[in-house]
Amino acid sequence: MENADLEVLSHLADWVEAGKKSWLCTVVKTWGSSPRPVGSLLCCNVDGEVVGSLSGGCIEEDLLERLHEGKLAKVKPELLIYGATEEEVERFQLPCGGQLHVVIEPFVDDTNLASLKVIRARLGERKCVERKVDLGSGEFEVSEVDRFRHLQFAGGFEDLETDGKELLQTYGPRFQLFIIGAVNVSQYLAQMAQMLDYHVLVCDPREEMIEQWSVEGVQLVNDMPDDAVKAYADDSATAIVALTHDPRIDDMGLMEALKTDAFFVGAIGSTRTSAKRRERLRVLDLTDAEIDRLHGPVGLSIGSKTPAEIAIAILAQLTELRSKVAV
Questions:
Q1: Is residue 158 in a domain?
Q2: 211: burial class by Cβ within 10 Å (0-12, 13-18, 19+)?
Q3: Angle, helices 184-195/307-322, rounded to nearest 10 degrees
Q4: Which residues are within 8 A (CB) of 75 and not within 5 positions of it... i.e. 6 or more apart?
């Protein structure tokens, strides 16, 4: 699975390059409960192809019908509000009186193709990019940025702002989970993490363990974990978890992981095992500040025993921390 934004914008670029009239739809505001967050994207084209989601339901059907009938965003962006009346709330099954404000941008030629390709390239490299749209003319410009321009709210972050005249949105790397060890718990963790839209990498220097891996959609790395961490996991949108129970493998990965910008570094094991691990890491010349970053035992304390329960505990802890991360 790709970054959801990358998937949408890649398809949009392909359609524009092929000469197909297309539209990009962005959720710019919500009121009350809404099925998808601000910043969610959907693109579609004149042939009826659709990538992405705004609500996962009837809104998409209504929107596509209006676009194909030529009732919306013919040559310039247009704002569409769903849920403005009680009748619409019931018709579109929006929860708790919710509203969705959607900006629809038409792409009628290849004027912005070069900019779309810049966005695609930046996201493919796990880098951030910002797009500023003139909602009157539809013209937009793209800037390469180092991080999200976040607006902080209620313990989390938005990556989009609009004043009705301009739309400013930052696209960035999808969260990824780097797992050290192709073990039983890793299978459950990888499968569940993909459901939460993580890009999952599993690293194990043991070739036989990699060969036995059965979960699809995971990037497998048959390399020493310290080298692999440096190559794949040094950014603030990454969580690193060591699961082998083998200090010869886990400690090598953790030695490098604790020096990275990863927002989370954790390792499986009991309280006693975790204490011994910290002592070993001190011998490897890590500072106290670096070692203090380690979450060990990893996962929320929910009484987990089975591999599936341990995976749930780890993902619960990541979910708790992820909403506070400014990448």
A1: yes
A2: exposed
A3: 40
A4: 106, 108, 138
Instruction: Mark whether 15 and 132 lie in a shared domain.
Output: yes
Among residues 136, 171, 206, the one where a domain terminates is 171
Q: Is the pLDDT of residue 154 over 70?
A: no
Instruction: Give residue 62's pLDDT.
Output: 87
DSSP state letter for 96: G
Buried b / exposed e along 280-314 (16+ C-beta atoms within 10 A)? ebeeeebeeebbebbbbbbbeeeebeebbebbbbb
Tens digit of each residue's pLDDT (9 = 90 or more) over 28-41: 987 765 556 788 89
Residues 51 and 196 in one domain: no
**Is the pTM for the entire model greater than 0.85?**
no
Whether the per-residue pLDDT at 75 is higher than 60: the answer is yes
| 327 domain-assigned | no
Q: Tokens 């999952």 appear where?
A: 200
Residues whose CB falls within 8 Å of the CB of residue 275, separated by 6 or more in sequence, listed in order: none
